């Protein structure tokens, strides 16, 4: 399942719904003038379903498990799980401080070939950190999926650590962003 056959109009629908021109501050202190708002994507059930269906074509044929990364990857992993029939786990950036105190929740994962799922990949640092957590816990990871890949070195960083990135869209696929409106 590695051919990218995006349905006609999906790119335009994603851009119209989730590409926003407004200030956006990254965790490292950098500022973007436009951003991909994964919450707008996740809040639109038809668009989420259609995006998951398109992402399903990118899932490697030997995948056994999907791993959604907190927070943007969670709704995508759930929808992708429904589209593919693959079970899913959900990754927190840090272990939960109460209750189960787990960092990985969901289906059994040890020994299962796992594919990371996230909304946007920039530098690749977050995906790499999550791949390491899964690998230490016993889940082999060699692939990651995202809706949008920004050209900030993520693909190269992941490749250096034996993770192949499969992106539905790259920044160049998108039309110009639209003005943000108050959420």
Notes on the protein architecture:
Strand 7 (141-149), helix 6 (154-160) and strand 8 (164-170) form a beta-alpha-beta unit. The radius of gyration is 16 Å and the shape is globular. The chain contains six helices and nine strands. The strands form two sheets. It has a six-stranded mixed β-sheet with strand order 5-4-3-6-7-8, with helices on both faces. A three-stranded mixed β-sheet has the order 2-1-9. With 183 residues, it is α/β, with parallel strands linked by helices. The protein has helices at 10-18, 38-42, 45-56, 73-84, 125-137, 154-160, and strands at residues 19-25, 31-36, 65-69, 88-91, 104-106, 114-121, 141-149, 164-170, 178-179. Helix 3 crosses helix 4 (73-84).
Record the SSE blueprint:
Elements: H1 10-18, E1 19-25, E2 31-36, H2 38-42, H3 45-56, E3 65-69, H4 73-84, E4 88-91, E5 104-106, E6 114-121, H5 125-137, E7 141-149, H6 154-160, E8 164-170, E9 178-179
Parallel strand pairs: 1-9, 3-4, 3-6, 6-7, 7-8
Antiparallel strand pairs: 1-2, 4-5
Helix pairs in contact: 3-4
Strand portion? 25-35%
What gross morphology would you assign?
A: globular
Number of helices, where a helix is a run of at least 4 consecutive DSSP H or I residues? 6
Oligomer: single chain
Characterize the main sheet: 6 strands, mixed
Helix fraction, binned, reads: 25-40%
Q: Report low-confidence residues grouped into runs of 5 or more.
A: 177-183
Quick structural summary:
This protein is of the alpha/beta class.
């Amino acid at each position: 399942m590695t051919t990218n056959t995006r349905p006609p109009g999906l790119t335009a629908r994603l851009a119209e719904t989730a590409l926003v021109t407004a200030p956006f501050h990254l965790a490292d202190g950098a500022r973007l003038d436009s951003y991909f708002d994964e919450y707008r994507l996740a809040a639109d059930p038809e668009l989420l379903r259609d995006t998951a269906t398109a992402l399903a074509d990118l899932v490697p044929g030997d995948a056994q498990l999907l791993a959604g990364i907190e927070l943007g990857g969670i709704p995508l992993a759930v929808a992708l799980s429904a589209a593919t029939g693959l079970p899913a786990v959900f990754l927190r950036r840090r272990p939960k401080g109460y209750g189960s105190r787990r960092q990985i929740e969901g289906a059994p994962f040890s020994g299962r070939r796992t594919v990371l799922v996230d909304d946007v990949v920039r530098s690749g640092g977050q995906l790499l950190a999550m791949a390491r957590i899964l690998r230490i816990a016993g889940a082999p990871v060699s692939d990651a999926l995202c809706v949008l890949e920004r050209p900030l070195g993520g693909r190269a960083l992941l490749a250096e650590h034996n993770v192949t990135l499969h992106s539905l869209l790259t920044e160049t696929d998108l039309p110009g962003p639209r003005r943000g409106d108050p959420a």
